[in-house]
Please model this.
Amino acid sequence: MTAATTPVDYDLTELQRETRMGAMGSLNTTREIRRIDLSNFDARKVEIADQLWEAAIDVGFFQLVNHGIDLGEIRGAFDMAERFFALPESVKRQYPLKKALNAGWESRAQVRPSTGTPDQKESYQITRPHMGDLFPSDQELPGFVEKMLGFERQSWEIAMRVLSCFAYKLGFDDAFFTRAHDQGKPSYQSTLRLLHYYAIPADVQDKLDLWRAGAHTDFDCLTLLYQRQGQGGLEVCPGKEMDAQEWTPIPPDGDAITCNIGDMLMRWSDDQLPSNFHRVKNPLPGEYMGPRYSIAFFAQANRDAIIESPGKTHPPITAGEFLNQRVAANFKAY
Ligand SMILES: O=C(O)CCC(=O)C(=O)O
Ligand SMILES: [Fe+2]
Model:
């Protein structure tokens, strides 16, 4: 576990950017969140790659439709996630987050550099090689492990398709990122994250100064985000417009998978593909105050993959070391 002892280096440019993004800002509803149709992928790959690239360099967030994951599968994963979070706290506490390994359960432990306050959520991370005894037992939650590992695999497949398009556009061979996210290796560190943002209690609905998720960029290459209809709050601010701090909502659509580029791919692409700020705001008075559930798949290159861009914009760094630095700056001791 050498990576876990790497000294923390707060000079990462990604972190410096993040500390400036905690303000409320204003609303901009004119940006287009493009929808990319993945149907007939093999035959349409070049066209799809062009569309993904355009959407990624413009707003940085886009949505995948006809992605091939059955909607029933997605609903099933959400049902399981809700059942997990409904377990008594004493059960969930048996599976505490191992933060250097992105595995396990935490509640209100993630403090974003942008806000300095804990996100109002609980989350459960699944990172294949590190689950050990971190899965709930079959008595506590029948079928959970099988369902979630199956969903993780399906998400990985979609992520690898999208990344093969970016590899093609960047001049790498098509399987470049698939090799860097190899599920068969112990250095695999892509993560499926189940998220539950707490319902807002009636007595605090008029003083909502905390964030469900403070403004941040993701640490990975690519994020797939599943949202539930009616449970909004996600907002994005494109990096090139950071100073204006104008935020655009991405309303949930059960049919679509929302995607964004993360910091690893930004580095790997010599900053051509922007990793954009996003956040989850609390509901405003009069809006739905119930819980919000979402599921994210973070395609994070294997620990031993070296992030080295063709143009040498950033010094080379292993994906393991990169992730450790970001995690260390994000979680209070656990
Ligand atoms: O729950 C969401 O909509 C966003 C989650 C997110 O941005 C994250 O966990 O990195
Ligand atoms: Fe995120």
User: Anything to note?
Assistant: Residues 216, 218, 278 surround fe (ii) ion (ligand 2) (CB under 6 Å). The first strand starts at residue 26 and ends at 27. The chain has one domain: 13-333.
